[in-house]
Amino acid sequence: MSDSSSSNTLDPAPFIAIDGLSKSYGVISVLQEVVLRVSQREVVSIIGPSGSGKTTLLRCLALLEKPCHGAITMEGRVISDATNNADVRRAAARVRPDIGMVFQHFNLWPHMTVLQNITEAPVLVRKRARAEAADIAMALLEKVGLADKRDAYPARLSGGQQQRVAIARALAMMPKLMLFDEATSALDPELRHEVLQVMRQLASDGMTMLVVTHEMGFARNVSSRIVFMDGGRIVEDSPPETFFAAPRTERASRFLCQLQN
Fold first, then answer.
1. SS3 sequence, 5-52?
2. Full-prediction pTM beyond 0.85?
3. Are the C-beta atoms of 15 and 95 separated by less than 8 Å?
4. Cα maximum dimension of the chain
5. Is residue 49 part of a domain?
6. Number of domains in the chain
7. Model confidence over 188-241: pLDDT tens digits?
8. pLDDT per residue over 57-82, tens digit each?
9. Which structural domain range is residue 39 located in?
């Protein structure tokens, strides 16, 4: 069982509640009885070795994967569980636009300009007028420092620029929750810095974020909490100052020592 005995576990009305979440692919168990609470405005960094279940946990939260056991609740409503319950399906459909996800690879539509990439979903899903969606997109491009790239196609952008467009595209849906899955791991150090700056600003603005990352500087300096996973379980859930200075588990200590070598 996880060492997630933080005060968040006792929060009577968490923004996100994950209870007993398990996920398997055939005989391969990827998540095992994960329990997690996330309050609004928290930035939770999820770290751990490869294959520990971090990405699968995020994909379950993004409603891209269905759990085999357990449930995910958002704002008091079950949005995902192992059943095919019609109420849960309807709840998932309602909240799906409120969950933004940024992937390791940018997944921009290559045949669309930057502006078109950002405005398409708000127009089709949120039913915004195209002019309103364009105004929102331009404000977001200003925010991520790419207003001059509005008419460029993704192939003409650097990796860091493409990832910043991907973040702007997710934000254009006005999400309540942002999920980042190794958003900087495909970038070289200079481009990585560009993306991390945008993520830091989002955290400063109060966005609720779950971030799967190997960026220990971000995890240490920006996160509200560190969730350390291994073997499909949450092994440790601690404030960053506790986790990095005095991890509670031997497994987390070994992981941190390997990073320093």
1. CCHHHHCCCCCEEEEEEEEEECCEEEEEEEEEEECCCCEEEEECCCCC
2. yes
3. no
4. 55
5. yes
6. 1
7. 888 899 999 999 999 999 999 999 999 999 999 999 999 999 999 999 999 999
8. 999 999 999 999 999 999 999 999 99
9. 7-260
